[in-house]
Amino acid sequence: MSNLSILTSSEQQAFDYPPILPAEIQSVCFSINSSLEKEIGALKTAVNKVGFFLQYAYFKACKRFFTISRFTQNQIRYAATLLNINPAEVDLASYKKKMPIEHQKKILKLLDYKSFNHRVTAWLKEAMFCWIEQQLEPKQIFIQVLSLLQQQKVEVPSYHRLAELITSTFAEFEDSLLSKMRDSLSLEDKKFLAQ
Fold first, then answer.
1. Is residue 157 within 8 Å of residue 116, measured between CB atoms?
2. Closest CA to 169 of 120, 118, 122, 114
3. 186: left (phi > 0), else alpha (psi -120 to 50), else beta?
4. In Å, how far are 15, 64, 142, 161 from 138, measured between CA atoms?
5. At what angle do helices 34-41 and 46-62 cross, to 10 degrees?
6. pLDDT at 17
């Protein structure tokens, strides 16, 4: 089953790409406190420092991590300048493999957030079952999920991952309704419907 179409393609892109932050939000999210300064100071290369800082600031702003290649040169230059690093020294193409994932774990810990994992998926499905019973539309459920994740201080995953989860929950709900209906039908009803 293909995923439900919850957001338009332009909304999906806006969701999955690091936004251009208004100046006041940017200054808050890119502020460096002592614990962040310590984490960045422990990193060896300019690329790792800027990569970590970008992930940290945008997670602080959006409560989710973005694919590194989606950061713009302006965003990279801004982070590098704040760290007193020459932007010409920073090529995020070399910030890859396990490093961004290791940094994400540290960022979650620094900001006291939980990762989006199987346990989170389980309780989200329970909540979604209730919303589906209340006949909320997929987009309304998407918005409710984002709100619930923020309340529970859980990282927000990509659009695709959320769309898959919402789609599979709708399918499970439908299967459970069909199963209940089959169980409640008498033998005569089943024979009649089979005709």
1. yes
2. 122
3. beta
4. 16, 21, 6, 14
5. 150
6. 96
Confidence of residue 5 (pLDDT cuts 50, 70, 90): confident
List of long-range contacts for 39-45, beta carbons under 8 Å, 24+ apart: 39/106, 39/110, 40/83
Q: What is the mean pLDDT of the chain?
A: 91
Domain boundaries, the chain: 9-110, 118-194
- CA-based nearest residue to 57, from 41, 38, 88, 33: 33
Q: Which runs of consecutive H residues, i.e. helices, occur in 42-158?
A: 46-62, 73-82, 99-110, 118-133, 138-151
Integer CA distances (angstroms), 171 to 8, 96, 129, 155, in order: 21, 36, 11, 25
The closest of 106, 79, 105, 76 to 92, measured between CA atoms, is: 76
pLDDT above 90 covers a percentage of the chain that reads 80
Check whether 181 has a pLDDT greater than 70.
Answer: no
- Reported pTM: 0.86
pLDDT at 179 over 80: no
**pLDDT band per the 50, 70, 90 thresholds, residue 96:** confident
Instruction: Check the CA dihedral 61-65-69-70 and report its sign.
Output: negative
